[in-house]
Design brief:
374 residues; alpha+beta; Rossmann fold; OB fold (Dihydrolipoamide Acetyltransferase, E2P); six-stranded mixed beta sheet; five-stranded antiparallel beta sheet; 8 helices; 22% helix; 37% strand
Length: 374
């Protein structure tokens, strides 16, 4: 495995009275594709700039393996940065832009040519070597920027929202290429984005940030299925979220079966939990729209631990591969339900506007976020 381990130790950074980073502390593993994800102003770009050497913390250290790089200027660190704006030299060709770091190092001309062509092939720009940046598409420009950042063979590649200037389809294609590139090169990638789908698609692990703090670090699966806070549950994907109070929590198979009193639903629901949550504790309960089943027929209520509600379809939204239903329950609460279109013949009767429907989900498909104040 190439690259290096990056340790962020108790980083604090303020700009006047504004706290950009508040005691940020975690480790990025060697060769990992690690994403910093959060809304604008959460501190992710400031943290990346500190790792790169463009900003310095008020307190704390950044270690590349066991070396504290804070005293080192950006050009002395074994890292390179790919920016959102490409930062290409407009008067230089693709070849010359990629070759620039090697020329600064005074590498022999024949070695430069061989290595530049290797990276031209790596980012799939064969045939474009002699074009100027203004002759390239946005995706091609970003490939040049990535090749130029990689040609010095850094141990860490820092990517600051590199795809945000591209249109949606091109962004998705280049994201796949970036993931493939990481697999080929194997160095540590640190990727900043505010786009949750990007982070979920390519990351080994993700750090969710808000207001200068890291709220949760985990795999895409852990972040999506087991959000640590109410903010994470709402920020990642779409969900249905309710405040609740634990009425009962008893052993169930290898987990616990909890009964939650949910004021907004005017009733109690069942949900499994990994831990025995305290009776009387205020919690946040979340269930993803795709986990909820919608039907015109009443589900089999004899199935254990099935939460069932009646309502009326207030708004159906057809999206090709799925339909979104906004269902107004009999108790007045609005619930989002997603129904995948997997097989036309198995879809059953079409559900339409104003239809009376049943929605249901298993206790295993909900999740308790224990601290509603985070």
């Amino acid at each position: 495995m190439k690259g290096c381990t990056v340790k962020i130790n108790n980083i604090n950074k303020s700009f006047g009275d504004f706290v950009a980073l508040d005691n940020v502390d975690f480790t990025i593993n060697k060769g990992e594709f690690f994403s910093l994800l959060g809304p604008s102003g959460c501190g992710k770009t400031t943290l990346l700039r500190i790792i790169a050497g463009f900003e310095f913390p008020d307190k704390g250290t950044v270690l590349f393996n066991d070396l504290n790089v804070i005293p080192l200027s950006a050009n002395k660190r074994p890292s390179n940065t790919v920016f959102q704006t490409y930062a290409l030299f407009p008067h230089l060709s693709v070849f010359e832009n990629i070759a620039f770091p090697l020329k600064i190092k005074k590498i022999p001309k024949n070695q430069i040519e061989e290595k530049v062509m290797e990276y031209v092939r790596l980012v799939q720009l064969e045939g474009h070597e002699h074009k100027k940046p203004n002759q390239l598409s946005g995706g091609q420009k970003q490939r040049v920027a990535i090749a130029r950042a990689l040609i010095n063979e850094p141990e860490v590649l820092l990517l600051d929202e590199p795809l945000s200037a591209l249109d949606a389809k091109l962004r998705q294609n280049l994201l796949v290429e970036l993931d493939t590139l990481h697999d080929k090169i194997g160095i540590t990638f640190i990727y900043v984005t505010h786009d949750q789908s990007e982070a979920l698609s390519v990351s080994d692990r993700i750090a969710i940030m808000n207001k200068g703090k890291v709220l949760q670090i985990g795999t895409p699966f852990e972040i999506y299925e087991s959000p640590a806070t109410e903010f994470v549950a709402k920020f990642i994907g779409e969900t249905n979220l309710f405040d609740a109070k634990v009425a009962e929590c008893i052993p169930y198979n290898d987990d616990y079966m909890c009964t939650l009193n949910v004021p907004e639903l005017h009733t109690s629901i069942k949900v499994t939990d990994y831990e025995q949550t305290k009776i009387g504790q205020d919690v946040c309960f979340t269930v993803r729209p795709e986990k909820i089943r919608i039907s015109l027929e009443e589900p089999n209520s004899t199935k254990s631990n099935l939460n069932i509600f009646k309502g009326i379809v207030e708004e159906p939204v057809y999206s090709g591969f799925q339909s979104k239903f906004y269902v107004r329950l009999d108790n007045g609460t609005l619930i989002k339900v997603f129904k995948q279109h997997t097989n036309y013949l198995d879809d059953g009767p079409e559900i339409a506007w104003k239809d009376k429907v049943y929605i249901s989900w298993s206790a295993n498909d909900g999740y308790i976020v224990e601290d509603i104040n985070q």
